[in-house]
Amino acid sequence: MTELLEFLQEQANGDLLPWSSQIAATEQFGVPCARVEETALATGLLPARYQRNRHAVSISQQLTLFRSQVAVIGCGGLGGYVIEELARLGVGTIIAIDPDVFEEHNLNRQILSSPGSLGRAKVEAAAARVAEINPAVTLVPIQDAYAPVNGKELLHGAHVAVDALDSIPTRLALSETCAELGIPMVHGAIGGWYGQVTTQFPGDDTIQRVYSRWVEGKGVEQHLGNPSFTPALVASIETAEVCKILLGVGKILRNRKLVINLLEMTFEEIILEHHLMVVGE
Fold this sequence. Notes:
Layout: H1 2-11, E1 16-17, H2 19-29, H3 33-42, E2 46-47, H4 59-66, E3 69-73, H5 77-89, E4 93-97, H6 122-133, E5 138-142, H7 151-154, E6 160-163, H8 168-181, E7 185-191, E8 194-200, H9 206-210, H10 221-224, H11 229-247, E9 256-261, E10 266-271
Parallel strand pairs: 1-2, 3-4, 3-6, 4-5, 6-7
Antiparallel strand pairs: 7-8, 8-9, 9-10
Helix pairs in contact: 1-2, 2-3, 3-4, 5-6, 5-11
């Protein structure tokens, strides 16, 4: 739309487009905020909210992020932080998948939870949060549990899947669905002071190798618990992996696992072919 483009160029301060101008454009031209943002980025204008990104993410890369779609499976401790960071990063479409509602034991660590949200669907809270912090981002809430029978449908269109689950059997199944769809899967797991992150690409069997010694039941979080800081850190590393995958930059944790021990403040890289270690969600 030529008129919209001309309006944005007139409103820009150099190559920065203020938020007030984005809102004015949506009202004047009757188009969604997402349309305004994509038009600005495609023209070489940077929405001012991303100005602190510019030395790490170029305007063209910001456009790539905006045109990307990421599925987050699980919207609890890990998933809530991943959704928050993806939205602030400017990933255009986030598919949030979780069947659950908030319970009181979620309040110590899940960023989307609050006393007022108890009983509320996690994906509903995720949609409201994203609409509040970055209205240009589209969050697709799916209040359903991932399973092999519906996995392909739930992840349809996603460029990357983020594992924010608390079930080892489910994440093993998720890795198979991602392999069938040909999309990368970023895996994160937490338990107490500990966490791990790795990334599986199509054709790899990374998650199967990570959990090759698992027998039954959930992971160590059942007796280690999960304090507030562990999911925040692991989710941030997962988000960084997603960003690198979408932009095709940096070194991915492929065939490598980052093992985090916040009690001793150590970070260890493990080559998966030579060492296997199990940590639950």
